[in-house]
Amino acid sequence: MNLEKRICLVSGGNRGIGFETCHHLAQLGHIVILTARNLTKGKIAAKQLREKKGIDIIFYQMDVSNQDSIDDAYDKIIQRFGRLDVLVNNAAILYDTWQTVIDTDFEIVNQALGTNLLGPWRISKKFIPIMKKNRYGRIVNVSSSVGSLHFMGKGAPAYSISKTALNALTRKLAAELLGTGILVNSIDPGWVATDMGGRGERPVEEGVKGIVWASTLPDDGPTGGFFFEGKPVEW
Fold first, then answer.
1. For the structural domain made of 7-232, what CATH number should be given?
2. DSSP-based three-state secondary structure for 27
3. Which residues of the chain have pLDDT under 70?
4. What are the domain boundaries of the chain?
5. Given 74, 95, 136, 159, which residue is catalytic?
6. 207-222, pLDDT tens digit by residue?
7. From edge to edge, which strands make up the β-sheet containing 57-61?
């Protein structure tokens, strides 16, 4: 196994944080698999990145809410590379700032949980066996400060609760995978300027730094943590 050139998968890689994460990981010399639910948008994003000198980007269509789609992407990756080293669970939907807990539309809650929690859960479950076989893996769950119980307030109930649950998944996975060579962490990229996040408080280039840090941790790096820019934050 080439320990310098990792095989990295980023879900929701066609825009925003996912797109920039693909860019940064590829710039470090890794092979990056950009995945997206929308075939056309994914192809366009991968083409834009490939046009940058020295960027090694591959596109596979993958809908994180659809197990058959995940299985298909898995088969292609294993057939081509035989392994996956880094999984960045970035795909997320429905920043429902217009809702309250009391007036919640549960269909929206189900959609958010299906993508923001069950999506990362499904993908992790699929790829963990091959990571365990190779005794190496980095699973990065892109979370949010609105998913922190410590800082939690009103607003965006479906999104924030789905991110709280994602943090719980991080803790569970990390505990079960201790000693396997697989590190699992949640990362808060901050409020960055993206299509979903709006104007934000920081550029997306700054927001992805913590994600890249968690994706490239050494073997003695932390696991089961919640971090912002490489520093622990309250759950």
1. 3.40.50.720
2. helix
3. 1-4, 53-54, 193-201
4. 7-232
5. 159
6. 999 999 999 999 999 9
7. 57-61, 31-36, 7-10, 86-89, 137-142, 182-187, 226-228, 231-232
216, HSE (Cβ side, Cα atoms, 13 Å): 17
pTM value surpassing 0.85: yes
Q: Strands, E, within the chain: which ranges?
A: 7-10, 31-36, 57-61, 86-89, 137-142, 182-187, 226-228, 231-232
Whole-number Å distance between alpha carbons of 149 and 139: 22
Q: Which residues contact 102 (CB under 8 A, 6 or more apart)?
A: none
CB 87 within 8 A of CB 137: yes
Residue 20 to residue 24: CA distance in whole angstroms: 6
Dump pLDDT digits (tens) for 129-158. 999 999 999 999 999 999 999 999 999 999
Residue 197, helix vs strand vs coil: coil
Counting every residue written for the chain, the total comes to: 235
Q: Return the SS3 of 201.
A: coil
Concerning whether 136 is annotated as a catalytic residue, the answer is no
